[in-house]
Amino acid sequence: MNTQDAMKKQAAEAALSYVEEGIIGVGTGSTVNHFIDALAGIKGRIDGAVSSSVASTERLKGHGIPVYDLNAVGELSLYVDGADESNAQLQLIKGGGGALTREKIVAAASRQFVCIADESKLVRVLGAFPLPVEVIPMARSYVARELVQLGGTPVWREGFVTDNGNLILDVQHLEIMEPAKLEQTINNIAGVVTVGIFALRPADVLILGTPGGPKTVR
Ligand code: 5RP
C-alpha cells in the first residue's frame, strides 16, 4: 500500500466513529472501498446501507451487508463518501469515478455527510481536478459547447458509461471561485444530469488522512 492509499485507509477507518445504527449511505471510490471493508467489522451494528454505485453495492454485498433501495427507506442519518477535491468550506468536486449523480442524491437524502480523503484533496480553490459533468448522450456536443462558453475545456471520457447509462465530460481549466453559483449554472444546461460540484449541499465533516494521523475539518 502506498502512502496516499494508507492515508485514505486511515481517514476511512476514522469515519467508523460516526456510524450509529440503522441504514447508512455509502459513496464510491478507493477511499470508500476502505470504509466498506472497515464497516464489515462492525456490520452487526447497522441494518444495512444505501449505495451510490453498482461497484459499492457489489462490495457491500460481498461483505454480507444488506443494500437497500433509497426509495424503500426514509431519510438517512449518515452518508460517507470520498472526494476529488475539497475547499476549506467543505465544498467538493466529485465524480472522478463517474458516480456523481447517485452520490449527490444519497448526500441530499442524508442528515450528515462525512467526507473522507487523503490530505492531498484539500485545496484552496476548486478546479485543478477536471470537473466531471454527467450528460444525456444526445446532448454531449451541445453541452460541451456551453461549457466552453463558461471558460472550460470539456473532454469526453470516451468508453465510459455511467450506472445511469449516460456520458461524462471532464472539464479542464476551470478556476471555480463561486462553486454554488457554477453548480447551479451548469445544472441548468439542457442535457446535463448533474455536475460534480457539491457546494449547494457541501460535506458537514471532512476527515483527512495525514502523516500525523486523521485530521477533522468542520
Ligand atoms: C466517485 C467519487 C469519488 O469519491 C472520488 O473520485 C474520490 O475517489 P477516491 O476515493 O478513489 O480518491 O466522487 O464518483
Q: Can you tell me about this structure?
A:
It is a single chain. The strands form 3 sheets. Strands 3-2-1-4-7-13-14 form a 7-stranded mixed β-sheet, with helices on both faces. A 4-stranded antiparallel β-sheet has the order 9-10-8-11. A hairpin with a 5-residue loop joins β13 (205-209) and β14. The longest helix is centred in the N-terminal third of the chain and has 12 residues, at 3-14. The mean pLDDT is 97. It is built from 6 helices and 14 strands. It has 218 residues and is α/β, with parallel strands linked by helices. Residues 27-31, 81-84, 94-100, 103 line the site of ribulose-5-phosphate (5RP). Pathway: Carbohydrate degradation; pentose phosphate pathway; D-ribose 5-phosphate from D-ribulose 5-phosphate (non-oxidative stage): step 1/1. It is an enzyme of class 5 (isomerase). GO terms for molecular function: ribose-5-phosphate isomerase activity. The active site is at 103 (proton acceptor). It holds the Pfam family Rib_5-P_isom_A.
Secondary structure: elements and pairs:
Blueprint: H1 3-14, E1 23-26, H2 30-39, E2 48-51, H3 54-62, E3 67-68, E4 76-81, E5 85-86, E6 92-93, H4 100-108, E7 110-118, E8 131-135, H5 140-149, E9 153-156, E10 167-172, H6 179-187, E11 192-195, E12 197-198, E13 205-209, E14 215-217
Parallel strand pairs: 1-2, 1-4, 2-3, 4-7, 7-13
Antiparallel strand pairs: 5-6, 6-12, 8-10, 8-11, 9-10, 13-14
Helix pairs in contact: 1-2
Residues 27-31, 81-84, 94-100, 103 line the site of ribulose-5-phosphate.
